[in-house]
Amino acid sequence: MDKHNASCLAKKQLRLYQIVTHYCLSEGDFNSVKAFITSFEAEWRYSMYALSEKEKVLIAYILFHIANREQQSEKVIHYGEYLLEDERINNYAIEILLEYKELLPNRKPTPPAIIKNYQLNYLENLYAILLEHYVKMARYEDGLLLLKEHVLASNKKINSSLVQKNFSSEQLIAIEAYVQQDIALHVNNSLQHIGLSVEEWRRNYRQPDAPYYVVAQSASLHMLNILRVLFVTEQYELFEKLMEIYKKYLLIDDHFENLRMFISAYV
Fold first, then answer.
1. pTM value?
2. Tens digit of pLDDT for each residue in 80-129?
3. d(CA 152, CA 207)
4. CA–CA dist 267, 245 (Å, integer)
């Protein structure tokens, strides 16, 4: 019986490795990965070796990213909310990282930062993707709740402004100070000479060969989704300050034009 148990569990583990490997090696065509998952779930659903919570989280994480790549917003939201509910992704992230280290990007999260490449941390990326699809599905109140409940969906200062409804001039100035610090760390990896770092950033962040070009693109897209949510949910004071910051430090013409058209549709 013990040998049978070990054999069944080894078979299940092998199938999971196949799914992860196919997902990591796929180049935009996820049909084979989805077929693997469908077959896997059917095979083990009613077995005495049914999927553990960790294995369900692993599958949901893969399906979340496939849905995002295929722009299936309802599925993105379904899997994203499942992963966040009861802190499932947090509860099993370390185990998944240890077993499938290539699957979860695990740069250390940076709660104070708003300017960063969100793809480098699995949780920050999850929030950015989920917020994007809340916006696409016009679920702005859900987007606002995400920003209020999860610091990594924006940053510490934006989150505290929303939670505490603190839109004092001091709080809004502090948000900009955090942005300048973000920029200095990306430009020179130092908080010395912040002003010079900001000047260099503003000269170069739109240039594709700049080392922080990808950071600026990622941060711009996410900041604009935050702005869309704040505008529709009438968080006007914070919206105006973040718009000022965006224009000053992150303005990317085609991104901003999309925001302008979005706002025009609501005015």
1. 0.94
2. 999 999 999 999 999 999 998 889 998 899 998 999 999 999 999 999 99
3. 27
4. 22
Predicted local confidence at residue 1, as pLDDT? 39
The 8-class DSSP code of residue 168 comes to: -
Is the pLDDT reported for residue 236 higher than 80? yes
State how far the Cα of 237 lies from the Cα of 146, in Å rounded to an integer: 19
Q: Which residues lie closer than 8 Å to 154 by C-beta, 6 or more apart?
A: 114, 147, 162, 226
E strand or H helix at 237:
helix 236-249
Query: What are phi and psi for residue 106, nearest 5 degrees?
Result: -125, 35
User: How many DSSP H helices and E strands does the chain contain?
Assistant: 13, 0
> 237: which residues sit within 8 A by CB, 6+ positions away?
167, 172
Q: Residues 108, 121: contact at Cβ < 8 Å?
A: yes
Structure tokens that stand for 83 in this block:
């992963």
Could you give the residue ranges of the DSSP H alpha helices within the chain?
Answer: 2-25, 31-44, 53-69, 73-84, 88-99, 122-136, 140-149, 156-164, 169-188, 194-204, 213-232, 236-249, 253-266
- pLDDT value of residue 250: 97
pLDDT class for 267, splitting at 50, 70, 90? confident
Element containing residue 78 per DSSP (H, E): helix 73-84
> Considering just the CA atoms, what is the radius of gyration of the chain in Å?
21
| Rounded to 5°, angle at Cα 78 from 142 and 95 | 110
